[in-house]
Amino acid sequence: MEKQIDLWLSNDEVLEQLGLRIKELRLKSNLGQKELAKEIAVSGRTLRRLENGEGASMETFINIVRFFSEMDKLDAFFKFEDISPQELFEARDSHKRKRASS
Length: 102
Fold this sequence. Notes:
This protein is mainly alpha-helical and 102 residues long.
């Protein structure tokens, strides 16, 4: 069952959701696991583990994203708006831990 990937999911749950979505992309493309594994230069076992939410290397993930022509979505994720030095300083200070008062 697909869930929305958000802040409240554990890392394991995020891996599970990514695996399900990769499997869904593969099936929509009418590809078997062996075919996709060959295309992205990994073993069938590696792809099975990934689809089962057991994780994979960043390189494997990038190969999958590239194979399905979704690199622009990665680019969109990493685009940052220009931030002034003052805004960076204020953002850094707002994330510091504060001592609990008694």
